[in-house]
Structure formats: C-alpha cells, structure tokens
Amino acid sequence: MQAISMTEPAGFAGNGEMHDFGPDPSLSLDMAAMLLNAYEIGDMINQSAEVAEYAYWKKAVDQSQEVKELVRKFEKAKELFEECQRFGRFHPDFHSAKDKVKAIEKELAAIECVSRYKTAELAVDELLHDIAKQIAGSVSETIKVPGNESSGGGCGGGGSCGCSTGGGCG
User: Fold this and answer.
1) Which residues, in sequence order, are CB contacts of 143 under 8 Å at separation 6+?
2) Considering the entire predicted model, what is its pTM?
3) Range of the domain at 53
4) What does the CA dihedral 125, 128, 134, 140 come to, rounded to 10 degrees?
5) CB 12, CB 19: distance < 8 Å
6) 57 plus 78 within the same structural domain
7) Which is the most buried residue in 7, 45, 108, 152, by most CB within 10 A?
8) Could you tell me if residue 136 is inside a domain?
9) Which range has the top average pLDDT, 38-42, 92-96, 141-145?
10) Into how many domains does the chain fold?
C-alpha cells in the first residue's frame, strides 16, 4: 500500500500521479438514452388531450378576425397607456388610458375562443408542472421546481418546500 502525503491536494499520490476518486465510469449517466426518454415523454405530452385542446383553441384564436381586430385596438390602447405611464398618474389621460386597456382586455376575455384558449393553456401548464415535480421528486424531495405560480406552493405558502417558518427561507 502506498502512503499518501498529507500536504498534497486530495487525489494526488506522493509520486505526482492522480488517483481517481470520482464515480465509477461504468455507472455514468447515459445522456443519449436520457435524451431519447425525454423525447418520448415529449411525444406523449404532445399526444395528450390537454395539448390537443390547447392546439385547437390556439388555432381558433389565430384565425379569428374579431380577435385580430381587438388585439390591434389593444396594442394601440396599450401604447397610449405606456406613454401616459411615463408621467405616472398625474398625466391627464392616465386613468382613461388605463380604463381603455382594461375594457379591451375584458372584451378579449369574453370571446369564447380566447377564454377556452386560456383555460387550455393553464391545463397544459399544470400538466408540464406536474411532470417537472414528478421528475424532481424522483431525484430528491428537496428539489424545488420553478414556475407555475397558480399552484400556490413554494416557500412561505405552505407548499412543497417543507419550510415551517411561515415566511421566506432566505
């Protein structure tokens, strides 16, 4: 057995040779296989009812002349509001510009294809977030999954972080 110098950095033998203390190469992660599995999961997600519903309503929104006209009106109203916003609530048109933007948003939300599209988009988002949580949980229960603010979880929200302080973990 060869003695290891206590003054040399870890992994060096006294003769200057490097020892391999890393993981066994035969146990290394096969990235190609993992990518293939990821593509398979992606294909399964793309074949789901949630994605089919999302794609249907997205196409309906994209083809709707009513939506296109309201989006143009919205963009003009938003541009005016942003101009007013530079001066804050003291701009003489600030409140009317803000009200106009909100009114057009409400009109857009009242269109069936838009409301159904938003509902379908949320369903796909929840599906993807659930899958991400499942993958992260299979690695460790302490892995945090970002995104999906609608879930209400996270630190201080009584969610999955396990924090019992009732506030931020920072």
Assistant:
1) 136, 137
2) 0.65
3) 49-64+111-141
4) -80
5) yes
6) no
7) 108
8) yes
9) 38-42
10) 2
Q: Which amino acid is at 160?
A: S
CA pseudo-torsion sign 25, 31, 36, 40? positive
Q: Distance (Å, rounded) from C-alpha 141 to C-alpha 138?
A: 7
Both 70 and 126 in one domain: the answer is no
List alpha helices for the chain, DSSP H. 31-46, 49-63, 65-85, 94-110, 112-139
Residue with tokens 């994209």: 62
* Residue 20 banded pLDDT, cuts 50, 70, 90: low
Give 62 or 7, the one with higher predicted confidence.
62
The answer to whether residue 115 sits within a structural domain is yes
How far is 161 from 157, CA to CA, in rounded Å? 9
Q: Would you state the pLDDT for residue 27?
A: 56
